Amino acid sequence: MSNAITVENLSKCYSLAGTAAPAYGTLRDTMAEAARRLIKREPASQAKPAEAFWALRDVSFNVNEGDVVGVVGRNGAGKSTLLKVLSRITAPTEGLARIRGRVGSLLEVGTGFHPELSGRENIFFNGAILGLRKHEIRARFDEIVDFAGIADFLDIPIKRYSSGMKMRLAFSVAAHLEPEIMIVDEVLAVGDAEFQKKCLGKMKDISSGGRTVLFVSHSMESVTSLCSRCILLDRGQVRKEGTPSEVILEYLGGDGEFSGCADFSSQGKMVGDDHVQLLYGEITDASGKAALEIDIRKPLTVRMGFRVKRRSDNRLVPNFHFVVPGGAYAFVSTPDVPATLAPGDYEASCNIPGDFLNDGSYFVGLAMTSYGQGQTVHFFEQSALTFNVRDPLEGSVGRHGYVNVMPGVVRPRLMWAIKEAR
Asked: Which positions ≥6 away from 332 have C-beta within 8 Å?
């Protein structure tokens, strides 16, 4: 499979002109400044050299034809600059970016539109920019207007459109004029929930048709459900590249090391006390293999190995704390009956059925408490494990064509009945 996008050692440098001398000045300003220095007997001021800011630095990656690749990162990481370079809006300072095929870009609301032209005229204007002939645009015209939902405003100048209306038309044009490569920035956040759903569904159709999509978003759920690969940008550099779950967990976890399994006994420090010690933790899929990503329809198991170091009459209660990004609790799970255990190594496990958790990322805290003369916390390793639940959309239960993220931490499959009322 050939590459649709090839990026090699790409860098983009901007000059922070705020630290340098003004780019221009009037004769009056120059004379006034000279008179002021003469009166106060000040030397001529020396302009500070402009500081260089590298928005991108040695970025390299490839995107295969037909791939849907997400780009995530914090504000200022270089995501929009990367897309502008790929869209030929700005030139790179160093390196190169090769694009094979016609590119349709949706970077900012109204990009590529003329404010004085009507919606109808802008559809043809945009199509001409993409290299299409009039008869090709006419063949898709009704489809574009119907998807955008702005038929009543077609002959009104774009400058009178709201930002949401501009975005509707811009996305519809970019999606229906069939570019080989579609580049979409976070601009979709401008639209309402219904239109976001339509956009995500359309991008899914585009990718299944063999076209390439590069998608920037702060919605981790959208990236998870839509993309097959993901790139994490940090301070203008590629910090991680891989599956959406791996990249998102790295992004959400900051600088820490997160995974679906952890061996605490080999870390050189004891996690626990002189009564109970934590040995390991892991997330496993339905086949029993350690997994970082779980199909939303499949069950998963959380396991925790621990060592009871001395005999006690206290009843031990393992705890699994499920937390979503941002720190909110999804739920805490403990066994029904506490255990009184002799010294030795043990494993506690908790099974979570499929069609229970919503799609998204989860952190799991591992804890052990005991009850006797009061309550004792032997260890509590917060965010010890991470995993990602992914909804493949195809064959998913309960969506009925809805492609956007469904609200809520859990999404249980419950029993329903519909019958005729008597």
From this structure: 319, 320, 321, 322
Half-sphere exposure of 174 (CA within 13 A, CB side): 31
How far is the C-alpha of 330 from the C-alpha of 365, rounded, in Å?
Answer: 12
Beta strand segments in 148-291, E: 181-184, 212-216, 229-234, 237-242, 261-263, 271-272, 276-284
DSSP string, 263-294: EGGGSSS-EE-SSEEEEEEEEE-TTS-B-SEE
User: Six-digit token pair at 332?
Assistant: 């805490």
CB contact at 8 A, 363 and 157 = no
The pLDDT value given to residue 43: 67
Tell me the pLDDT tens digit for each residue of 375-406. Answer: 888 999 887 888 888 887 665 666 666 666 67
Cα torsion angle, 253, 254, 256, 257, sign? positive
Q: Report d(CA 101, CA 162) in Å as an integer.
A: 32
Query: pLDDT band at residue 217, thresholds of 50, 70 and 90?
Result: confident
The pLDDT assigned to 255 comes to: 46
Kindly state the average pLDDT of the residues 252-273.
70
CA distances from 370 to 42, 63, 277, 344 (A): 76, 52, 13, 16
Give the pLDDT of residue 59: 92
Backbone angles phi, psi at 352, to 5 degrees: -115, 120
- Cα 203 from Cα 199, distance rounded (Å): 6
- Categorize the per-residue pLDDT at 326 as very low, low, confident or very high, splitting at 50, 70 and 90: low
What are the CB-based long-range contacts (under 8 Å, 24+) for 15-23?
15/50, 15/51, 15/52, 15/53, 16/50, 16/51, 16/52, 16/53, 17/50, 19/48, 19/49, 19/50, 19/51, 20/47, 20/48, 20/49, 20/50, 21/47, 21/48
pLDDT tens digits, 293-304: 888 899 999 999
**Using CB atoms within 10 A of its CB, is residue 321 exposed (0-12), middle (13-18) or buried (19+)?**
buried
> Does residue 316 carry a pLDDT above 60?
yes
CB 43 within 8 A of CB 37: yes
Beta bridge partners of 92: none
Sequence-distant (6+) residues with CB within 8 A of 286 are 298, 299, 300, 354
**Contact between residue 58 and residue 11 where contact means Cβ atoms under 8 Å apart:** yes
Q: Look at the block and give the residue holding tokens 């899914």.
A: 204
Distance CA 219, CA 235 (A): 19
Q: How far apart are CA 372 and CA 228, in angstroms?
A: 50
- d(C-alpha 224, C-alpha 247), whole Å: 10
